[in-house]
Design goal:
mainly alpha, single chain
Length: about 220
């Protein structure tokens, strides 16, 4: 009996977590589509397929709902970026190819719909939620850059990258990718064609490897 009660409790808890996530996903979708001021909780409830009261029971009010939805989206973007960085754990014999793959995939993350909507929502509401910019940055770019620094540190120890400050190398690599994209996309308001993102990725990898790679991979042409 106790075992059945515990199982039922776990199921209830899991269901509550799933419903909360569904509400957060729906909230982010509606906020991204309409903006904060133009969105009402009833619309979010309809998008999530739940009662308005259920939204309030889980997230208390609109401001908390917005904050939680944005931070959940930031965590999702970070998870995508971390999965890309993880591919560099075993780069194989061809470091330039592995780095190029990393760059292309990372740009797919940072120029994806969710990442673009996240940036737009965060900066659009900076006056109302001034601390949210730092929270989003900490959850996304900081986490991804730290993971990338760990990969670069291992590559430096193995001799595939020159001796360097891995945190600085990771920061520079990400800047080589995101800087041009921010400029060319006009801070995310213009969608870049695939040819442009490929060109940005190639230029970033070329510059990075010239500065940090050892052997043939680091030779300039």
């Amino acid at each position: 009996m106790a075992r059945g009660t515990a199982s039922a409790a776990r199921t209830t808890s899991r269901g509550r977590i799933d419903k909360r996530q569904a509400i957060l996903d729906a909230a982010f979708t509606v906020f991204a589509r309409q903006g904060y001021s133009q969105t009402c909780v009833q619309e979010i409830a309809e998008e999530a397929g739940v009662a308005k009261l259920t939204v309030y029971n889980h997230l208390s009010d609109k401001e908390n709902l917005f904050r939680q939805a944005v931070e959940a989206a930031a965590d999702a973007v970070a998870a995508e970026g971390l999965a890309v960085v993880e591919r560099l754990r075993e780069p194989g014999a061809d470091l330039p190819a592995a780095t190029a793959d990393l760059a292309r995939r990372m740009l797919q993350v940072v120029t994806g719909k969710r990442a673009l909507a996240l940036r737009w929502l965060t900066y659009a509401q900076v006056a109302r939620f001034p601390d949210l910019v730092e929270s989003v940055q900490r959850r996304t770019s900081t986490r991804i850059t730290e993971a990338l620094a760990d990969r670069f540190a291992r590559l430096s120890l193995s001799g595939e990258l020159r001796r360097c400050d891995p945190a600085q190398a990771a920061e520079q690599f990400m800047a080589l990718l995101t800087g041009p994209v921010e400029a060319r996309s006009r801070l995310g308001t213009r969608r870049l064609p695939a040819s442009e993102t490929r060109a940005v990725a190639a230029a970033a990898v070329d510059t990075f490897l010239r500065a940090y790679a050892t052997g043939e991979a680091g030779e300039t042409g």
